[in-house]
Amino acid sequence: MEAGDLGRRAGTGLLAAPCDPLLDNPEKDRGTGVELHRSRRVLVFGILFAVVGVLVVLCGGGSVGAWILGGLALVMSGTVVVNELKPFRFHIGADGLTLRTAGLNRLVSWAEIDAIVLDEPVPTIGRSKPTSPTLLLVPAGSTIDRPLDGKSSVDGRSGLVLLELDDVREPVDEVAAALVRFAGDRFTNMRQLRRARGDTPDFPVGLRGYEPARVDDLIRQAQDALVSGNTAQRHGARAKLDTARRKLPIAMRGYAVGQVDDFLEGLSAELARWPHEDTEPE
User: What are phi and psi of 238, to 5 degrees?
Assistant: First the structure.
């Protein structure tokens, strides 16, 4: 199955959520489209910082330390509030995406979009913030005049990260259903494809095991290649996997070495097979 097949599966609704929230909401039909709304959770924290800053200054008796701490809290609050109050729009409709985000402020027609990928990045080493599902736009031409700061997990092409879905109020499944409906075969839901495979391992954690984030990243890349069905991508992922698994870093607490080695060996063998068992190389 080539990368384009994934999109066609999306267009048939195979990649949609199990239930389509749009069908239950007559205001979100094909005529009006779906409007996403920014979550204001971070804004609340910004306001709380401002309150804390004012209280520190008022209760600090005029001390220099109180002014410094209060001032820092107010600066942080102002930064958060200004960022959260920036104009935002993300509308999914029959004509395309009407955007005021990611440096874009216009209607991006479907003709300008080759692919939309919904995915969730692997947590990186040392990152405390949980990862958020993201939407990535792969342009069809050169009309998207923005730096392409991401890569498609379907086929590795460069794309523009449009949105972290934790930043909007609508559930991820509702956004996915809207994209299945309006984007058709341009949309791929990689999160759902991985869940459909159902082969994500759950390694035990113990002393002096493999660094979990590095192992998770390797497995994610290999599974993306398997899902894509693209032979070149599979072979490239296998070469990278075989090189990396020979020098995986050891952590004080990490994944059990023997189980990881066995799983990665099986994954490498699966990548080496042709996407269809009955297909022989030409």
Answer: -65, -40
Q: Which residue spans within the chain are E strands per DSSP?
A: 34-36, 89-93, 96-101, 104-109, 113-119, 134-139, 150-151, 158-164, 187-189, 205-210, 250-255
Cα separation values, 187 from 12, 32, 252, 268, Å: 10, 19, 41, 28
Using the structure block, give the residue that is written with the tokens 């159902």.
198
C-alpha 243/C-alpha 247 separation (Å) is 8
DSSP letters for 247-263: GPPEEEEEE-HHHHHHH
Helix (H) or strand (E) segment spanning residue 104: strand 104-109
Rg (CA), the chain: 23
What's residue 44's pLDDT?
Answer: 64
The pLDDT of residue 81 is: 63
In whole angstroms, what is the distance from residue 202 CA to residue 180 CA?
31
Specify the pairing of strand 113-119 against strand 104-109: unpaired
Which residues are CB-contacts of 192 (< 8 A; sequence separation ≥ 6)? 15, 17, 176
The number of beta carbons lying within 10 Å of the beta carbon of residue 172 is 19
Backbone angles phi, psi at 176, to 5 degrees: -60, -40
User: What residues of the chain score a pLDDT lower than 50?
Assistant: 1-30, 124-128, 277-282
Torsion of CA 177, 183, 187, 191, to 10 degrees: -20
Q: Which of 257, 228, 59, 67 is nearest to 152 (CA)?
A: 228
Given this model, what pLDDT does residue 110 score?
96
- What pLDDT does 60 receive? 73
Q: How high is the pLDDT of residue 174?
A: 93
Chain position carrying tokens 């040392």: 126
Tokens of 120: 């969730």
Q: Which residues pair with 139 in a beta bridge?
A: 113
The predicted pLDDT at position 136 comes to: 94
Query: Token match 């001390």: residue?
Result: 63
pTM of the model: 0.59
